[in-house]
């Protein structure tokens, strides 16, 4: 279990470093390109309309770039939340199924049943099963409610 946690952390760290370096390279190239485009647009508008309109055109270009960057960031953030939720659901399902498929757990359960008998703990097991079902249904409902946390 500890190895799985370590592997998950190292994988997410590696992915974060790669994405950060790609984003830094793209941001630098975008900055240089934007600088040249803004200079060209500024000179063109300055020659045609004057200095005030040229400054307003430059502000408009940067405003549009800011909106595009914010939209892509929010889209990426939503995608990551969705992937994390799906991964958590898969991990919860696999953990529950692996516990029931464990041969040592089944052998221990059979030994306990042989030692105590089946008629005495049957009502307790039935109540425990109902409680487990209620807890599982409430856990699914709270996960769906907390899928969109407030910011």
Overview of the structural elements:
It is a single chain. With 151 residues, this protein is mostly helical. It is built from four helices and no strands. Helix 1 packs antiparallel against helix 2. The longest helix is centred in the middle third of the chain and has 50 residues, at 51-100. The protein is elongated, with a radius of gyration of 29 Å. The model has no long low-confidence stretch (mean pLDDT 79).
Major β-sheet profile: none
Amino- and carboxy-terminal Cα gap: 32 Å
> How many beta-strand runs?
0
Q: What is the helix content? A: over 70%
Q: Which regions have little confidence, pLDDT < 50, spanning 5+ residues?
A: none
Mean pLDDT comes to: 79
Structural class: mainly alpha
Number of helices: 4
Strand content: under 5%
> What is Rg?
29 Å
List keywords for this structure.
elongated; mainly alpha; 89% helix; 4 helices; 151 residues; single chain
Summarize the structure in short.
The chain is an all-alpha fold and 151 residues long. The chain has four helices and no strands. Helix 1 packs antiparallel against helix 2 (51-100).
Strand-helix topology:
Blueprint: H1 2-48, H2 51-100, H3 103-116, H4 122-145
């Amino acid at each position: 279990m500890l190895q799985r946690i370590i592997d998950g952390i190292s994988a997410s760290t590696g992915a974060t470093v790669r994405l950060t370096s790609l984003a830094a390279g793209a941001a630098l190239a975008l900055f240089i390109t934007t600088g040249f485009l803004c200079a060209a647009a500024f000179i063109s508008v300055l020659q045609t309309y004057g200095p005030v309109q040229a400054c307003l055109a430059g502000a408009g270009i940067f405003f549009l770039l800011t909106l595009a960057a914010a939209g892509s960031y929010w889209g990426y953030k939503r995608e990551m939340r969705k992937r994390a939720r799906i991964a958590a659901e898969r991990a919860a399902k696999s953990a529950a199924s692996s516990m029931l498929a464990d041969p040592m757990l089944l052998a221990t359960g059979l030994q306990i049943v042989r030692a105590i008998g089946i008629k005495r703990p049957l009502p307790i097991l039935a109540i425990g099963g109902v409680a487990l079902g209620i807890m599982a249904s409430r856990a699914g409902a709270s996960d769906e409610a907390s899928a969109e946390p407030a910011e």
